[in-house]
Design brief:
Helices cover 74% and strands 1% of the residues. The protein has a two-stranded antiparallel sheet. Keywords: Antibiotic resistance, Cell membrane, Membrane, Transmembrane, Transmembrane helix, Transport.
Length: 563
Amino acid sequence: MSGTNAASFRLRLRAASGGANRWLVLAVLCVSLVLVALDATILHVAVPSVTEDLRPGSIELLWIVDAYPLVCASLLILFGTLGDRVGRRRILLLGYGLFGAASALAALADNAQVLIAARALLGVGGAMIMPATLSILRQVFPDRRERALAIGIWTAVAAIGAASGPVLGGFLVQHFWWGSVFLINIPLMALILPLGRWLLPESRGTAEGPWDVVGALMAAAGVLGFVLGVKRIGAERRLLDAEALVPLLVGAALLIFFVRRQKRRTHPLIDMRMFSRAAFSTSVGCIVLAMLALVGLELIAVQYLQLVLHLSPLETGLRLLPLTFAAMAAGATGSYTLARIGPRTMVSLGFVLTAFAVLMLTFMGQQDRPVLLTVGFILLGFGLQTTLFAAYESMLSEAPAATAGGAASIGETSYQLGAGMGIALLGSVMNAAYAPGLTHVPGVSAADAAGAANSLGEAYQIAGALGGAAGQSLYAAARHSFVHGLHVTLVVSAALLLAGAVMALKLPRVMECPDAAERDGGAEPVRLPAQAGSESARVPAATPASDRDRGRDHGRDPATRPA
């Protein structure tokens, strides 16, 4: 091996085993995560332009918006567990390539069907990327203190991507055409694909027994049906609607069968015994509850800014920037806070702070109060990010390294399920509080009142068509009812957040940091990608002293047991 190749090999060896360049690995993972999170929200402001250009039907428009999150959520467990078997780096690089190709297809789509297919392919690519980034992070940062800092950066970046979507999307649509919101993915993917191939280490979990293909497909179909049903309930506001109830029940049944199947198998996709650990199951529950309480609230807040305060999409995105900056601050300081106050106090305080911010926002009215909104959004972003950071860190640290992909997919699926349920639940609460205020508006017929009760935007359209005193009365009543509904929804959301603070009391009081790398659960060694003039290397992770002393791993020399 030449001197140059030897130096390069040592550089990459340090990156894989926790050396200085592990932060470069984190940078590559964060860039890919930004793109995945960005695509979840960037299309929202482009919907009017897409509608004008492609003329999709109402069902097609629904699938243009929902195909990406639905497909992504349904395949997280499949690709997370597959990465544990065939290699997380391999799945991640395939996801990069697919995401870039799907972005090009979406940008150049000339009809709704092509755009829906492209959005679905983006979801497949996103499902390959998201759990792989978190599981590789788990492997590259064996020390819990450093991993906590890395997860803080990782969660802050996810918040930046999601919050930046409306701002960036509004700018691009205003200056270019709607396809530009997808086109920006291509140069970034072209950059990180070769970087990832060269820099990211390969790792996998145990390869014992066959991969449960039936179980993976069952989990994918179950999550797809459940999330689709929840989204339909959120859109239609009717639980007994067949289009919502059937996929919801089928999805729930498939998920129940999936759990029972995993408990019976010798080599399951996901070790359900992880849920018997209070820290793991409580962390997952906190992620679901945090997203349930806040995602639907965020959508309603966007409607408030645009329809009540009449801000443009770009102005709306800028108003939400304090939330993003606060989330970044919480992520940057999260590891310091976690080490000093522990997971239990950190998650509980995060929930309480977020609930306080939500209740503060009940002082919003029909007039713009920028200082109140800014302070409320700052506290909201900091509290939410604090909660999610500590919950993700506790969940990932409780999972063995061998099943990091499965654990990461559980966390991401919980995030998506909580978001979907939040839209349905808080949307239903909002509608129940909003609609009654429009039933007895002077000069407005029952049919017009029923149409106005569907949404504030529709109420404005009907009021404009009516004109005169009746139109003005409907316009004023709709604004008043929407603000009232927003206040009710905020109170319900605060109650859910306080319930999360109570749930978090089951988390560990202190952050336990072993001296050596944590027990890996039988993971294979980290594999460095081959380079010209050098061979692939196996990098055993450090073995915990307690395992070495007990001589585990079926009689093998514990000092040689790979991580």
